[in-house]
């Protein structure tokens, strides 16, 4: 069968309906539409009620279902289902997540939902499934919906046009500031912190009374964010910036205190920064302890219960409480809250200052109170009109009753009342429905009293609508009522920002003696523990050694020094002196593996203070087999926690000593058999770290390098040489004539049976002190001027008395300054 009708799918017809557009323009517009949909419809709160659409719809669905604070709890799944079916056609999990957050007292300053069941915890535990939990509106949430039935806000059709939903809630208090909000939109995000209800109300009232006030004026009332988890805010300058610009970063700090015990202290954490996961905090602290980044912690316990947070960090007996506390602050107990006061204003995203947020809220409440007053006025006028008709009917009761009796039906009666008595249609309708019992004198008195009340209410409403001041007075009174009912004390405190506190700031600066043993035990002892003695004494016990352990090194330093530790295997480690545990003179020490990542058989043989470094300076090294190497000090500025290569060694060789030089000095190498060689350091060309160096001294069979010293051409210092049997001498540096590198050198000291081999050489002045320590742990401190100055090739005098089987293990030199403090010149040799 043929037809003359055109084919709708003919190519020509289809082509006519095709619209040509540029792809880039279409994509741009589509993306903008999508972005605005996300911004306005999901991610950002409205500045007026502080709610995103999902929160607003949940509360309205509960309101419509009668799930108020006075009703019984209802299954969360029922609330989510009503919200999703009527107003929010998105995933139920998203709706439930929003419901859960409104019920969490650690997320909301004033929770809007009263939950029953498991609604999650500060440990990050998720809420129970919605079929297990129950909820209802919290009393304060009803304040957001008060008077919503009085045409106070605009409504819009829901997603399927079956129902109407509010575009915004009346909001009897500034919920955006009180409970805060966070969300991520397309290309923007919001993060408004919660605040104290009482402070926000007071600031709002002040703004109403003083429209020209500044943000600083408002900060007299709003001190800063008030987080539900309490804690502290560090400093006020960041808060001021956030309130003045709408953006800022607020430092939050946990609340903690130190509990002193009989043997050790404990740091007890009782309040957490906002949105800090408690269980992850404990895990991170434990990780730092396990990885060696946090020393001094013996035990870590989470003793939190329903009464509050309590995390106990129990310290070791000799731990420095201030240092552990500082590490916890730097790494765990402080967080930053990035304030972004972004909200929807007239449907458009805008970053707002504190004053602008309150101004927008006040403008919203003015509109709400105005519309409510207009609604109430219309109802009151309608009621007054009816009451006027009733009073008029009561005055002519007999005639009115007779007129109604004579009418054929209700409609005739209404018309007769209008014609005969002048009643309006509304009044006639009401009079016809009146009962005879309402004609009593008591009923008449009640109607007259009600009419007077309604008339007074009309006058008041007209006064509010006719006067801006009266309208604002109503807003202030209602805000004060909310404050009186719900406000509580501020939870978050302010503490002063003292700036960045380093561990050095917490450690008293003092000179200490550091002792290392062959079994890798280490400790520090205040230098003033050891009084200066006369030479030749045995000294006192300096450390308690394990069986078969021996002292390998001793050096002096300040607690604030940053040290480079060179080992016999040529590795370099960085160490802060205060990180070494301070112990008593007779204590054994702690294992060095807790401080330095030493391999088996690796020992510290030389210590260099990085404070000595200057421009154009070098680290000059010498090995046991006489190899010398010089490297710019700048190559040792970045030392890994696992150490770096300081020098590459030949098989069987070990690093013995390191000196800081400036390129213009002479090097003095001393050997165990008492030989010394002095030559210009320029003869050792500068090379990079990972090199071997050049020959520095020739060694006879069985001889090895004992130490390295650096001096200038006309130096007036002396060279101090100490042997293993406790003998030593001083000789003027000028007596060691310069030679060429790689010679046998000159005789420095006789190393026969009485003296034993040389253990250390150092350059000293008359004002220096010497600290010598024996392998068995005896230690002596004596002034350098107690040791005689003699020539080369002599035996020397007794410096330290050592028992049979014992020997001097190491020597360190430091000098008291003019004001009585001690400046360190620390070297540890072996």
Q: How would you describe the overall organization of this protein?
A:
- The chain is an alpha+beta fold.
- Among the domains are: 78 residues, Gyrase A, domain 2 (2-Layer Sandwich), CATH 3.30.1360.40; 319 residues, DNA gyrase/topoisomerase IV, subunit A, C-terminal (Neuraminidase).
- Helices cover 30% and strands 25% of the residues.
- It contains 19 helices and 42 strands.
- The chain has a five-stranded antiparallel beta sheet, with no helix packed on it. Strands 14-9-8-17 form a four-stranded mixed beta sheet.
- The relative contact order is 0.07.
- The C terminus is likely disordered.
Please, what is the average pLDDT? 89
Structural class: alpha+beta
- What is the tally of beta strands? 42
Largest sheet, in brief, is: 5 strands, antiparallel
Distance linking N and C termini: 114 Å
CATH class of the domain at 507-825: Mainly Beta
Topology:
Layout: H1 11-17, H2 23-43, H3 53-65, E1 74-75, H4 76-86, H5 92-103, E2 113-116, E3 134-137, H6 139-145, E4 155-157, E5 164-166, H7 175-179, E6 181-184, E7 189-192, H8 197-209, H9 215-218, E8 232-234, H10 237-245, E9 247-253, E10 255-260, E11 265-271, H11 278-291, E12 297-302, E13 311-315, H12 321-331, E14 334-340, E15 342-345, E16 348-351, H13 354-395, H14 397-406, H15 410-421, H16 425-433, H17 441-466, H18 468-486, E17 493-495, H19 503-506, E18 511-517, E19 521-526, E20 540-541, E21 551-558, E22 562-567, E23 571-576, E24 590-591, E25 604-609, E26 618-623, E27 627-632, E28 644-645, E29 655-661, E30 666-671, E31 675-680, E32 694-695, E33 705-711, E34 718-723, E35 727-732, E36 746-747, E37 758-764, E38 769-774, E39 778-783, E40 797-798, E41 808-816, E42 822-825
Parallel strand pairs: 8-17
Antiparallel strand pairs: 1-3, 2-3, 4-5, 6-7, 8-9, 9-14, 10-11, 11-13, 12-13, 15-16, 18-19, 18-21, 19-24, 20-39, 22-23, 22-25, 23-28, 26-27, 26-29, 27-32, 30-31, 30-33, 31-36, 34-35, 34-37, 35-40, 38-39, 38-41, 41-42
